[in-house]
């Protein structure tokens, strides 16, 4: 068998694929969704990368940017109630932290669909031919790393816990205020962000599996069954929580940046 024949019998040209010569039979603007995903997600990656490497203007009392929480590096000394356990790390604190939430998002089942279509065009959309001559799935690097998703999920849960702590601290006094509970616009933004982060994290397929995915008798585990039912329901909205939390975490970081640079002031309600 020639190499040409072998290529035709595997991958995207295999015998189980539809025999259609046209690139697509669709007449709608199918390219709009992958293009939007490409523009928005690329913008987020560029923004997050810049903020992580810049490593400044991430704290203004009582707000700690979610990109830098838990802030445990040398640059965080005096800016957080958490212990600085990475005192040897002199670079941006975010370079330690972001690996976990970004790893979780990049291996997420929904985001796989998003970047498969928007970046690798595999396929660009339903019923649209892909430009690749073969398909290896997630058996080779870098897609092989997607198999680490459940482990990134554990790290994302830990980060979400620290974001919850930072949200509680966001209701504390700013500089010059008396001790006690205070609330500003930033406090509400932090609250909304951590709620969206938790919804995205807990609606994950891995969380669904952990709650009751391996049970054989739901009747013997009513609590886990209820948790599994709730996660399954929210899993249908996983894409929604993914995008909302993406915008919220970037928005809150940018808000802290504006406060830290003195561009705006934080309205305090009480």
Automatic annotation (TrEMBL):
Keywords: Membrane, Transmembrane, Transmembrane helix. The keyword Transmembrane helix applies. The chain crosses the membrane at residues 30-53, 91-111, 151-174, 180-200, 240-260. This is Succinate dehydrogenase. It comes from Nocardioides pocheonensis.
């Amino acid at each position: 068998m020639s190499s040409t024949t072998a290529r035709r019998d595997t991958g995207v040209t295999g015998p189980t694929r539809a025999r259609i010569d046209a690139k697509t039979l669709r007449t709608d603007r199918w390219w709009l969704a992958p293009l939007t995903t490409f523009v928005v997600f690329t913008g987020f990656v560029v923004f997050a990368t810049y903020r992580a490497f810049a490593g400044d203007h991430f704290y203004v009392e009582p707000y700690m940017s979610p990109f830098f929480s838990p802030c445990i590096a040398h640059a965080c000394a005096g800016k957080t109630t958490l212990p600085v356990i990475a005192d040897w790390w002199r670079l941006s604190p975010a370079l330690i932290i972001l690996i976990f939430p970004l790893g979780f998002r990049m291996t997420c089942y929904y985001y796989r669909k998003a970047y498969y279509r928007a970046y690798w065009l595999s396929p660009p959309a339903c019923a649209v031919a892909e430009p690749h001559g073969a398909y290896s799935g997630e058996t080779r690097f870098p897609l092989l790393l997607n198999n680490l998703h459940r482990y990134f999920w554990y790290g994302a849960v830990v980060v979400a816990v620290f974001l919850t702590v930072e949200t509680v601290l966001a209701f504390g006094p700013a500089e010059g205020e008396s001790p006690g509970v205070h609330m500003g616009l930033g406090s509400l933004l932090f609250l909304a962000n951590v709620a969206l982060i938790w919804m995205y994290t807990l609606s994950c397929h891995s969380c669904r599996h952990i709650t009751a995915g391996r049970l054989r008798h739901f009747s013997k585990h009513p609590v886990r069954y209820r948790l599994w039912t709730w996660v399954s329901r929210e899993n249908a909205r996983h894409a929604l929580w993914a995008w909302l939390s993406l915008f919220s975490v970037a928005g809150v970081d940018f808000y802290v940046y504006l406060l830290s640079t003195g561009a705006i002031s934080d309205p305090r309600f009480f």
